[in-house]
Amino acid sequence: MTTHQAVKDLRRALRSGKPVRIIRDIDGADRLDAYVVGLGRKWVLLHTISAGFHLDGHSVVRLRDVEHATHSGRKAVRVAHRALRLRGERPWTPPGIDLDTTTGLIDTLTKAFPLVSVHIEEIDPDVCHIGRAHGVTRKKNLRLQEISPGAAWGNACSKYRTTDITRFDVGDGYIDALHAVGGNPPDL
After folding, report:
1. pLDDT at 188
2. Which of these, 84, 72, 87, 69, lies nearest to 21 by C-alpha position?
3. pLDDT score for 72
4. Which of 96, 121, 129, 171 allows an S-S link to 125, with CB 3.0 to 4.6 Å?
5. pLDDT of amino acid 91
6. Separation of alpha carbons 69 and 140, rounded Å
7. Parallel, antiparallel, or unpaired for β 43-49 and 55-62?
8. pLDDT, position 2
9. What is the value of pTM for the model shown?
10. Is residue 143 assigned to a domain?
């Protein structure tokens, strides 16, 4: 459960433009080193820093799962910030992303990026589902036309309960490579 302090830390990171380490209250979930580039009522938008100290796509995590967002005492995060600045890499915010509602988030991510990675970490923290979102049903299920790790498109949509989704990723090197090789999905 998000603490009042975690929200304050996220706001401070957003204002300062300095990276933080995001630790979430989900067993097995990745810790994320990132810049906070957007904060809404339900979701926080991050520009993620790769292990090689490069900016690598955006992650959106549920605000309620954030346990800590801190940069104090994190030498690696400070080094990453300096390295990115020296390389000329700057965090940016994709325009128009709705961070207040899950349905709005899915809709705006789909308009801004060709593919989205969906994580359901409370059920399985080691798996993500990548594809093209085809909206949310009346029963609050995300319809996702998935692309395989071999860049082959499925001919039907999988459904994932929006209440189970803990994180989305967009625009990273892996997702972009899948789109480059697999192209746009076939019409359903």
Report:
1. 84
2. 69
3. 54
4. 121
5. 97
6. 29
7. antiparallel
8. 60
9. 0.95
10. yes
Q: Is residue 19 part of a domain?
A: yes
Please indicate, yes or no, whether residues 115 and 45 belong to a single structural domain of this protein. no
* Residue 55 placed within a domain: yes
Q: Answer yes or no: do 107 and 167 share one domain.
A: yes
Same domain (yes/no): 64, 123: no
75 within domain boundaries: yes
Residue that has been written with the tokens 């909206």 in this structure: 135
Residues 6+ apart with CB under 8 A from 177: none
**Ranges of the chain whose pLDDT falls below 50:** none
For residues 167 and 117, membership in a common domain is answered with yes
CATH of the domain at 70: 2.30.30.100
Residues 6+ apart with CB under 8 A from 75: none
Structure tokens at 138: 């009346």
Q: Which amino acid is at 73?
A: G
**71 neighbors 18 (Cβ within 8 angstroms):** yes
Tell me: the pLDDT tens digits for 9-23? 999 999 999 999 999
What is the domain range of residue 120? Answer: 102-182
Count of domains for the chain: 2
What's the token pair of residue 133?
């979102």
